Amino acid sequence: MTESRITEVSVYKSGAIIKRCGTVHLEKGSQTVKIKGLKAAKMGFIPADSVKLAVDNRIIGSNVQVEAMADKDVKDTLRSIQDQINEKNRELEILELQETAWKDNADFKAKESVSIEAMVGYIEALEERLKKINEKKAALGKDVEELTKQYQEHEEWLREPYVKADLCCEEEGDYGFELTYFCNDVFWTPFYEIHTDDSTDNILIKLRAKVCQNTVEDWEKVKLHLYPTDPSLSGTIPTLYPNRLSFYTPAPERHSLGMGMMKMAMAAAPREEAMEDAAFEMPMNSIASEFKTVSRASAEFKINDSILEYDLAGTWDVPSSKEIICDLTDQSVSCRYHDICVPKLDTKVYLAAEVKTADAESLMDTNASIYIKGTYMGDAYIEMDPSKEHYDISLGIDETVKILRKRTKRFSSNVLLKGQKKIDFEFEITASSKKDRKCDLTIIDQIPVSEDKTIEITQGDISGGEYDEKTGEVKWNISLEPSETEKKILSYSVAYPKDKTVNNL
C-alpha cells in the first residue's frame, strides 16, 4: 500500500475538493498500485466517480478504481497478530493455574504427614513465587493490551477504501502523484464583524469564515481555498416554457360513492402532470462539536472568469468534527450615521450606518456581529438591495434616543348622503435625545393603502413628512440637538360603505 497526505483543499458552501499527494516506487513495466487515504469513503462521503489520479508524465496510467479489502483478506493479514494474542492468553491461563495450585498447596489441614519445617519453608517461599507469577501476568496483560490495540488500528487501516490503478513506466524509480476527490461532509459559512466607534465617517467590515469538516481525518498543514458557491446547485440553464392561459372551470360537486363506483371513478379520472418545481431535501451537515479559533489570517480575493475565490495565506490545521475560524478580508466603507425608528411596530431606536450600495455591493447576505468601540452590541442580518442607492446597516439599539407613539384621536361618523362610515385617526409621535451631540433621526410610519375603490383614504396632517402614496409610508428626517424633544403628527381618515367591515383598521 502507498500512503498519501492531504496538501490542499478547495472548500465550497457545501462539499470540498480534496487533493492528496504522495510518492510511489515503480518497477520497470506494468504493475498495479494501491493508494491509501480515503477514510471518508468508508462513511459514504466520497462519490466514487469523483476520484481522479494524476501521475508523472513519464507514466501511463489506467483502470483507476476505488476498492476495499475483502473481510477474509483482512483477517488473513491480521492472523499473525491474532496468533500472538492467543498465545499470550494461553500463557496467562497457565499462570492462573500455577497461582491457584500454589495457593491450594498452602492448605496443610489435610496433610498430617508434612513436617513443621516443610510447612514453614513452603509458606516462606510462597510469597516470592506468587510475586513472580503476578509480575509475569502483568507483563503478559500489557502485551495483550498493546497487541489488541495494534490489531484494532491495523484492522481499521486495512478496511479503509483505497485507490487501485494500473501504472506502466519505462524506468524504475520514485514517481509523484496527485489524488483528488469530492467530499460531502465539508462546508464553510461566511459571517461579518462590523466595527465602529460612532464618531468617524466610516465603518470597518471584516469578513470571517467558519470552516468545518467531518471526514474522520484531521487535516494538518493544508492549503485552503474557499469558494462562495454550492456545487450541489444545478448548473443547467433554465428553459422558459409557454405560459398557456385558459378559463377556470370549477370542479363538479362531489357525491358519496360506493366502493365499486369509487374504483371506477378513479380509473376513469385523467392523470394530471405536476407543473410545479420539485423540491429536494438535502441532508443537513453535522454540527461541529467544538470551536477552534484561529485569528488574524488573511486571504487574497480572486476573480477567475465567473469564479470567486478566497485564497487563505499559509497552511492550516483543521481537526475533524471541529470548526476553525479564519479572517478573510477587511473593508473600510464610508457611511453616514443616523438613528431609525418604526414606532408603530417597535418603539426602540436603532443606530444605523447608511452606506452607498455601490460601495458595499460585494457583501454577501449573511449574519454580522456588531461592535461599537470594541463592545459587542449583538447580531444583525445583512441583505443588500441592489435596486436602492443606499443601504442601512443596523448597528444595534441606541439607548440614548427615545420614541413615544400614542393615538390621540379615533372619531367615527356617518356620511349620510354617501351611505358611508368615516373614521378619523390621529397619532402623536414624540422623539427625544440624550446624546451630547446632534442626532440625525429617521422616523418611519404609515397611512393605510386602499385595495378597493369603495374604501377612501384621505391624508391629514403629517407634520411635513414625506408621503409615498403607493406604499402609504410616511417618513420624517429630523435632527435633534442634545436634550431636545420634537413632536410629529400623523392623521388620516378612512371612509367606506357602512354595511361593510374593513380588515386591519
Architecture overview:
The chain folds into 4 domains: about 5-70 and about 160-185; about 75-160; about 185-230 and about 285-395, no CATH class; about 400-495, Immunoglobulin-like (Sandwich). The strands form 5 sheets. Strands 1, 2, 4, 7, 10, 12, 13 and 14 form an 8-stranded mixed sheet that branches. Strands 11-15-9-8-18-19 form a 6-stranded mixed sheet, with no helix packed on it. The model is unreliable at about 255-295 (pLDDT under 50). The protein has 5 helices and 27 strands. The protein is elongated and about 130 Å long. It has helices at about 40, 70-75, 80-105, 115-160, 260-270; strands at about 5-10, 15-25, 30-35, 50-55, 60-65, 160-170, 175-185, 185-195, 200-215, 220-225, 290-295, 300-305, 305-310, 315-320, 320-335, 335-340, 345-355, 365-370, 375-380, 390-395, 400-415, 420-435, 440-445, 455-460, 465, 475-480, 485-495. Strand 16 (about 335-340) and strand 17 (about 345-355) form a beta hairpin. It is α+β, with helices and mostly antiparallel strands.
Cα(first) to Cα(last) distance is 77 Å
- Beta-strand content bin: 35-45%
* Helix run count: 5
User: How much is the radius of gyration in Å?
Assistant: 39 Å
Could you give a short account of the major beta sheet?
Answer: 8 strands, mixed
Indicate how many domains the architecture comprises: 4
Unreliable stretches: 255-296
What is the mean pLDDT?
A: 83
**Quaternary:** single chain
Can you tell me the overall shape? elongated
Helix content: 10-25%
- Classify the secondary structure makeup into a structural class: alpha+beta
